[in-house]
Amino acid sequence: MAAPVSTLFFGSGLVALPALELLLASDLVTVDAVVTAPPRPAGRTGRLTPTPVADLAAERDVPLQTPSSLRTDESLARLRAIDPALIVLADYGRIIPGAVLQLPRHGALNIHPSLLPRHRGAAPVQAAIAEGDTRTGVTLMQMDEGLDTGPIVAQVEVPLGGSETAPELEARLARLGADLLIEALPRWLEGSLSASPQPTAGATLTRPLRRDDGRLDAARPAAELERLVRAYQPWPGTWLEVAGERLKVWAAGVEPAAGEAAPGEVVPLGETVALATSNGWLRLDEVQPAGKRRMPGADYRRGRRG
After folding, report:
1. Strand partners, 227
2. pTM of the model
């Protein structure tokens, strides 16, 4: 049996954890270092908080690097000193410079949660839900200096049922991506698995989400807004304004318009309330008024009556 391959793992978020777990358990590789984003302020106190990947690396006593930039001579020298034969990346959140990609002789593999070339970029899971895709999946690709443009090593496809939230779908794809990596890795390392260029047709690019993306615009159809409610959890969340106050929407449904109401009006609907839109009503199943707890739409309506 060949000696385990020295591997450098890049990852930050929860989506990266299943892949790192399986690599740490594999006898094909040794994870000689983990590279993750630096700690960031979190919560009302602004306390510096490590990434989930940093926590796992510390738990498993894996050497950890948290560079603020990978483009400095110091950062590159630290990575070069590890002399990795393979790089694996999942949910790192930063661009990897070409000088780093050139380090390993077995190349750099990226687990991307979409069926590339569709939904390249920063928010592929959210885009798949928001755009009403009927299928998505995971792509294992060989990284190049472009943004998710490298050749495809392997893919797995999953159907979408139209009720998934972003956290649920991310967790599902994270597990599938980790399994896909471990399944492909033996053939990749021995050189019997090749990568194929991505097709040019069907390529789309997603951008990082912004806070204002979560505003529910009643000029859009209710079906589109319902998808945003599921896609933008937990960040940036979705919201609308009622009587000058922000109302966060955690769960919603689509109803045919049941009366005369202008888009933007919040109207009674059975025991709950709904937002009238340009096409249909958005039923507000679970909401959170500013400064209050999450609650069913029916509780919110009773509170407004009071």
Report:
1. none
2. 0.95
* Residue 285, pLDDT score: 98
Distance of alpha carbon 209 from alpha carbon 216, whole angstroms: 14
Tokens (6 digits) for 193? 């698995």
Nearest to 173 by CA among 206, 208, 134, 124: 124
Instruction: Report the 10 Å Cβ neighbour count for 15.
Output: 24
- For 125-180, what is each residue's pLDDT tens digit? 999 999 999 999 999 999 999 999 999 999 999 999 999 999 999 999 999 999 99
Distance of alpha carbon 66 from its chain centroid, rounded?
Answer: 20
Q: Is 50 helix (H, G, I), strand (E, B) or coil?
A: coil
Beta-carbon contacts of 58 under 8 Å, excluding residues fewer than 6 positions away, are 50, 64
The string of pLDDT tens digits covering residues 246-266 is 999 999 999 999 888 999 999
The residue with tokens 């199943």 is 285
Confidence of residue 306 (pLDDT cuts 50, 70, 90): very low
Cα dist from 17 to 2, 13, 20, whole Å = 26, 7, 5
Q: What angle do CA 276, 236, 304 make, to 5 degrees?
A: 45
Residue 29 is encoded by which pair of tokens? 């590789």
* Contacts of 123 by beta carbon, 8 Å cutoff, 6+ apart: 206, 207, 208, 209
The full DSSP string for 200-253 is STT--EE----GGGGB--TTS-HHHHHHHHHHTTTTT-EEEEETTEEEEEEEEE
Q: Write down all domains in the chain, each with its CATH number in brackets.
A: 5-205 (3.40.50.170), 211-305 (3.10.25.10)
Tell me what pLDDT residue 1 has. Answer: 59
